[in-house]
């Protein structure tokens, strides 16, 4: 932080934030911690079920399709595109935060717009992937894919896949809504009147968290 | 901070610490790690050149590295004061117990099933044929 923090500052002596951040930002961090444990519980229950199963479908076989190229097999290509989109939108979000710190309203609007675009692109990709898997016969309670060793698989695979990517997709969706609200507030000049762009930073924390969760979802479902 | 009670405006002022160079550096690190993961996954899929459980360890280490960069740089936690870092990092350590306990439970359950559930044991050794296409016009979840 650019605040010059004196050496030997007594953080807990009262009269100041012992965490040197604004209240709302600290609470956003705590909310994200609770959300991390919710996602953690989902992913760990997925792990427990995988450990208790003798075999599991091969992600390279399941996720090998790409829009507009027909039956050609490109394992993991589409999901890498999704990952790239989300990382990219995280970068534009950091740029929006940086522009907010410089009180540059135009630049904040530009970067927020790009972040929203990235979020919508990610949601579009996910909608395509779900539709495609559904057309192959995968859904909650229905799993057409065999285990990697050729034995009959259970529906656990698709149940966990749709539940966890769905829960993450819902987070992306709410993140896009929050970002749209932030864009409108920036456009109306609310933050200039307030004198600071801290709301952008809090929305940014949430948005990066969504990216962070995707990193783990990506590893658990597509790589392991 | 001059006043005894800091207002949010105090935290929104004069921060010139933003550095877009380090943001792009983080972006490239994340991208390179992700692409490396994909290359390893695809080479493994084509050639099976390495035991999968060792690769899984590599994937998990790379994932944790990516998580570290997102939290420290994008979420700016690495540049906050130690109090804030610790109030996040210490509760996050619960995940260590969480993971060990539940993965252990899963594999214990697997052992029990293989030993005492003859149906499951049989199923885990019987290869089946894939049904190529689901019945036309019948989509899952649609009654």
Structural overview:
- The complex is a heterodimer of chains A (224) and B (143).
- By secondary structure, chain A is an all-alpha fold.
- The two termini of chain A are 38 Å apart.
- The mean pLDDT of chain A is 92.
- In chain A, helix 1 (23-52) runs parallel beside helix 7 (198-223), helix 3 packs antiparallel against helix 7 (198-223) and helix 5 (156-188) runs antiparallel to helix 7 (198-223).
- Chain A has helices at residues 23-52, 59-62, 77-101, 105-135, 156-188, 190-194, 198-223.
- Chain B has 143 residues and is an all-alpha fold.
- In chain B, 67% of the residues lie in helices and 0% in strands.
- Chain B contains 6 helices and no strands.
- Chain B has helices at 8-12, 20-47, 52-74, 82-92, 94-116, 118-123.
- The radius of gyration of chain B is 25 Å and the shape is elongated.
- The termini of chain B are far apart.
- Chains A and B meet through helix 1, helix 3 and helix 7 of A and helix 1, helix 2, helix 3, helix 4 and helix 5 of B.
What's the alpha carbon Rg of chain A, rounded to whole Å?
21 Å
Continuous helix count of chain B: 6
Radius of gyration of chain B from the CA trace? Answer: 25 Å
Helices and strands of chain A: which structural class?
mainly alpha
Kindly name the structural category of chain B. Answer: mainly alpha
Helix % of chain B is 55-70%
Mind summarizing the main beta sheet of chain B?
none
The portion of residues forming beta strands of chain B comes to under 5%
Low-pLDDT ranges of chain A = none
Round the mean pLDDT of chain A to the nearest integer and report it. 92
Short description:
The complex is a heterodimer of chains A (224) and B (143). Chain A has helices at 23-52, 59-62, 77-101, 105-135, 156-188, 190-194, 198-223.
Please specify the SSE layout and strand pairing.
The complex is a heterodimer of chains A (224) and B (143).
Chain A: H1 23-52, H2 59-62, H3 77-101, H4 105-135, H5 156-188, H6 190-194, H7 198-223
Chain B: H1 8-12, H2 20-47, H3 52-74, H4 82-92, H5 94-116, H6 118-123
Helix pairs in contact in B: 2-3
């Amino acid at each position: 932080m650019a605040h010059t923090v004196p050496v030997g500052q007594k953080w807990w002596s009262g009269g100041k934030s012992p965490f040197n951040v604004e209240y709302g930002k600290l609470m956003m961090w705590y909310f994200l911690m609770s959300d991390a444990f919710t996602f953690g519980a989902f992913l760990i229950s997925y792990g427990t079920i995988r450990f208790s199963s003798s075999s599991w479908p091969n992600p390279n076989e399941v996720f090998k399709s790409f829009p507009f190229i027909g039956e050609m097999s490109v394992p993991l290509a589409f999901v890498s595109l999704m990952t790239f989109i989300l990382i990219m939108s995280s970068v534009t979000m950091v740029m929006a935060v940086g522009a907010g710190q410089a009180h540059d309203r135009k630049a904040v609007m530009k970067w927020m717009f790009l972040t929203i675009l990235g979020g919508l692109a990610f949601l579009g990709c996910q909608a395509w992937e779900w539709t495609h898997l559904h057309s192959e016969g995968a859904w909650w309670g229905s799993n057409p894919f065999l285990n990697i060793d050729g034995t009959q698989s259970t529906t656990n695979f698709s149940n966990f896949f749709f539940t966890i990517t769905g829960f993450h997709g819902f987070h992306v969706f709410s993140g896009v809504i929050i970002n749209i609200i932030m864009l409108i507030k920036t456009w109306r000049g609310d933050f200039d009147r307030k004198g600071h762009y801290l709301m952008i930073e809090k929305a940014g924390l949430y948005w990066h968290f969504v990216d962070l969760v995707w990193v783990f979802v990506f590893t658990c479902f597509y790589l392991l | 901070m001059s006043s005894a009670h800091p207002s949010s405006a105090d935290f929104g002022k004069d921060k010139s610490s933003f550095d877009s160079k380090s943001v792009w550096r983080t972006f490239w690190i994340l991208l390179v790690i992700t692409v490396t993961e994909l290359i390893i996954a695809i080479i493994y899929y084509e050639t099976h050149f390495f035991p999968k459980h060792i690769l899984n360890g590599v994937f998990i280490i790379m994932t944790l590295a990516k998580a570290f960069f997102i939290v420290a740089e994008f979420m700016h936690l690495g540049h906050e004061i130690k109090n804030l870092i610790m109030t996040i990092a210490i509760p996050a350590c619960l995940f260590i117990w969480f993971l060990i306990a539940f993965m252990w439970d899963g594999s214990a359950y697997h052992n029990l099933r293989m030993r005492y559930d003859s149906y499951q044991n049989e199923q885990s050794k019987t290869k089946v044929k894939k049904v190529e296409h689901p019945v036309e016009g019948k989509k899952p979840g649609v009654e």
